[in-house]
Design goal:
Shape: flat
Radius of gyration: 29 Å
Number of strands: 21
Distance between the termini: 64 Å
CATH architecture of the largest domain: 2-Layer Sandwich
Largest sheet: 6 strands, mixed
CATH class of the largest domain: Alpha Beta
């Protein structure tokens, strides 16, 4: 860092990643709380020799450079303490992360604290994780609650959460119809798989849903087995902290709060597999589904449909299902919103980039993957981004909400309804292929017969007949010549 980058950091005034401390003669004791908070949150920059006036609204006047008297002493004290396991459980810093910068004759010590990898969190002080773990918000450093510390400790386990053994929970707690529906999906996708011949307990054991102890032959369900395929009562008994909720807020009339809802009401076994298979068709129903043929079979599983399936799967496999929270799916006229309990294990920018997968619920991830739900190796989120980009919809927004202990994914849908200005009596006369032709023209007014033929999978002469029909109805108008003209969708 240098003088310019220090000034730029101060002018941004981002309290969640910036902390200024006076530190004239000694290293402030509060620096360790900030070190822990930055490491456990988003990382950040500590500036020693700078005073911040939080009451000052003008960002240009908020910070005052006071400097430190003995930078070398402060740096030496800092390194001695950060390497002392009795004070700090882990040193995340390299030599270049602690710098001395001259600010017009005054010396500032800059300490750049990175976000700790989930495998080493929590970062705590005073040899006490429950009392010495801090987090950062816009107002400063705060003690983490015990459930937050426990969550970080669980996340540090590379094996994930859902392999946890549930003593005294057995096959009696499995909803067999649910498991059989899953097995039907499995056998359809893998007709020759050796697992198909196994009885239910052995099948579940192979997928990580059931455990038999080699030493004493005791056996029980895992967290994944119960939550995915269990009966509702034992699930609510063991995981009373968790709720599943689907709310459809699209097409509301007047003061209507929702048009459809799926939550526990005693009419269904509220396990995760049932929730996904009941909710997914509701989410996909109104997505644009162009007419496309693969030989004589209609192919309508578009990239957007796959992306929504991926998003719902991700909400489950990345959720912390052991904290109080709601796995919630909301449908609006113009967007889908999926919320899951827990925080991100990886930084947001790393998730957008892909290439890495750090699922909390790895056994569930396997269970979904075996029936075609979910990607491996971190390709899931890029798949969602690509599908949305293909439609030129707004970029999916992944939001971490530490104050609520949840993550929210917003999938905005801006599908252009090419028939919205066409009377209903006329649209009744249109085939799915003719609607697709209108959609193609809405995206590209200069689309050629050849291009429309390729995208619909029919012969050019068929496209010409469809266009002539659309023109006869007054829906489609050709402006200009064959080479340089364009199409317009008419408002009847």
């Amino acid at each position: 860092m240098n003088k310019t980058t220090i000034i730029e950091s101060l002018l941004k005034g981002e309290h969640i990643t910036l902390e200024a401390k006076r530190a004239e003669n000694d290293l402030p004791r509060s620096v360790w709380e900030t070190y822990s908070a930055f490491a456990n949150t988003h990382g950040g920059l500590i500036l020693l020799g700078v005073i911040e006036n939080l009451k000052e609204k003008d960002i240009n006047k908020r910070f005052t450079i006071t400097g430190v008297d003995d930078a070398e002493k402060i740096r030496k004290d800092f390194w001695n303490i950060v390497n002392n396991a009795e004070k700090v459980n882990i040193n995340l810093l390299k030599d270049e992360d602690v710098e001395t910068i001259d600010m017009d004759g005054k010396t500032v010590v800059a300490i750049n604290v990175p976000r700790a990898d989930y495998t080493v969190r929590p970062v705590y002080i005073n040899n006490n994780p429950l009392r010495g773990t801090f987090k950062r918000n816009h107002e400063g450093d705060y003690h983490c609650a015990e459930h937050e510390v426990r969550m970080m400790m669980r996340d540090a386990n590379e094996a994930g959460n859902d392999g946890m053994l549930l003593e005294y929970y057995t096959m009696d707690d499995i909803d067999i119809p649910t498991l059989e529906r899953y097995r039907n999906h499995f056998s359809s996708r893998h007709p020759d798989h050796v697992f198909n011949s196994l009885e239910h307990k052995s099948f579940l054991k192979e997928l990580g849903g059931y455990h038999v102890d080699r030493k004493d032959q005791s056996e029980c369900l895992t967290m994944a087995g119960l939550l995915m395929f269990g009966k509702g009562h034992p699930i609510r008994e063991r995981f009373e902290n968790l709720r599943l909720d689907y709310i459809d807020k699209s097409g509301l009339i007047g003061d209507q709060r929702y048009s459809d809802r799926l939550t526990y009401d005693g009419t269904w076994e509220n396990n995760l597999f049932n929730f996904v298979t009941m909710v997914l068709p509701k989410l996909l129903r109104d997505l644009p589904r162009p007419f496309k043929m693969d030989g004589i079979v209609r192919e309508d599983d578009t990239p957007q449909h796959k992306a929504v399936r991926e998003a719902l799967t991700n909400a489950i496999i990345h959720a912390d299902l052991m904290i109080n929270g709601v796995l919630k799916v909301e449908k609006y006229d113009d967007k889908l919103v999926l919320t899951n309990p827990g925080l991100l294990k990886l930084p947001v920018e790393q998730i957008y980039a892909g290439d890495e997968s750090r699922a909390r619920n790895q056994h569930m991830q396997t269970m979904f993957r075996m029936i075609g739900f979910g990607e491996n190796l971190g390709s899931g989120f890029p798949l969602i981004l690509s599908a949305w980009n293909e439609k030129h919809w707004l970029k999916p927004e992944l939001i971490e909400q530490p104050e609520l202990m949840q993550v929210k994914l917003i999938l905005t849908i801006e599908a252009k309804d090419v028939t919205k200005d066409v009377t209903k009596d006329v649209t009744k006369e249109l085939s799915e292929r003719q609607v697709l032709i209108l959609e193609l023209i809405a995206e590209n007014a200069m689309a050629t017969i050849s291009e429309m033929s390729q995208k619909t999978g029919v012969a050019p002469r068929t496209i010409i007949r469809d266009i002539e029909h659309l023109q006869s109805l007054g829906i489609l108008v050709r402006i200009g010549g064959r080479k340089e003209g364009h199409w317009e969708i008419s408002n009847l």
